[in-house]
Predict the structure.
Amino acid sequence: MADYEIPKLNPELDVPEIPALEPDKMAGLKPFVAAPAHQEPLGFPGELVDNWQQVAIDKMGELLGKYRSLQVYLDSCVKCGACTDKCHYFLGTNDPKNMPVARQDLLRSVYRRHFTFAGKYFPKLVGARDLTEEVLDEWYSYFHQCSQCRRCSVYCPYGIDTAEISMAAREIMDAVGKGQKYCNEILGKVLKIGNNLGLPEPALVDTLEGLEEDIKMDTGVDVRLPVDVKGAEVLLITPSADFFAEPHIDGLIGYAKVFHQAGISWTLSSYASEAGNFGMFIGSYDTMRKAALRIRQAALELGVKRIVVGECGHAWRVAYSFWNTLTGVGAGADDPFGQMLQKQLDPRYPQPQHICELTSDLIDRGALKLDKSANDHRVVTFHDSCNVARATRMGDRPGGQFEIPRKVIQSVCANYVDMAPDTIRQNTFCCGGGGGLLTDDLMEIRVKGAMPRMQALDQVMNENGVNTMASICAICKSQFSKVLPYYDKPMHMIASVHQLVSDSIILGAKE
Ligand code: SF4
Ligand code: SF4
């Protein structure tokens, strides 16, 4: 199945033990480099520019001036070692450069050489390095072996965020013409067509009509999946994987049933048919903004009162943490269109709102008729997605991002078990495919990086009979569908949270 060794699981341990080091084991694993056709539409050079060292140093200087946090992170590490065994990629690959502190040092060493007094005059003493071709090569490998999951930052006494360092490194590499094909190709599609797949409006409409027919056949009820309906109350922004991938599509059907039963008018947009925003993965605020502005334009044109976001981890981070200043959804935009949108949206609801918050509120108000027994064949556990768990919140209480999805699951399933505490909530292990790594050219790191999550899952499968792992992230769902079989687990055990809702909701009698 694979021409590399699949890590062994040790279900005796909640968290894998520190592996024996195998230096440079993963140095050769790199994603495909973006071609000029992927780079240029985003405003990046098509290929490595002649004076790339200078361009890279200038870009680093620009980022240090723009993001104070970056400089603080590069200056404040005391090499305490607390983060070293916290990265799933280190635990799964044994490669010491996948230790968070070592990953940071790849950038820190060049920062010291060019931006600190000691590094300029006594480089060897402070571990400062020139930016050579070998260093750039290492950056390209190891900054694409970081899913920007932020688990290491939870354990760092200084809160150093390796994800932000990895984003900065990728931004510098894009600036010199060494971008990553997977992310940049997708961003090109979203900016041109409106979704990561490049799915044009007729294909989207056709897909949704097919799903309406499936629901009708299954339930006997006309549940709509509307597109571009002006005056709808809710605009649903969901990852485009919800339109075609399994188990995502079952989640989309679940959202539609929730809106239907609660009597909420809603619509999708063919212009902004993507919640995902890979601009965050490549560290480009400018690209992230361009993608997000499509959502603002759709919301203004459709005249909606609420914006709800479907199940997608990094999309919820962009929506929750950045949309306010990027687009004016929430508060913060000071341009006329942002202010126009702020006036248009209904202040009685969170803007934006996560679909789990919406469903949870409806459950509290008794607006959904649910039959838990429909899920009695399942014993469910929940995989907290990194970006939701460590970079956002849901609802109005701290920890809502942990409690609300669990509450929704437990409202529709009688049998629920959590995985080991060190592997869930803010300590959650990444699925292994986040941060722009969900591409086949990085399959080896995806499989190896999934090992800590697989181990915790293995425990609850053995001890509690868990047969379903629910998730609220499109990337996690795709990643698990692919890697579960490598660990001898059924690929269909990964489920959308709203798939569980969908199966339990009582819409009406079947004809
Ligand atoms: S952010 Fe996540 S993937 Fe990156 S170094 Fe930290 S733990 Fe590893
Ligand atoms: S835990 Fe923080 S301070 Fe300690 S080595 Fe890691 S990044 Fe540096």
Observations:
- The chain has three domains: 36-181, 187-360, 370-504.
- The CA atoms of residues 44 and 470 lie 38 Å apart.
- The pocket of iron/sulfur cluster (ligand 2) is lined by residues 77-83, 100-101, 156, 158, 160 (CB under 6 Å).
- Strands lie at 234-237, 266-267, 306-309, 353-354, 380-382, 468-471, 494-496.
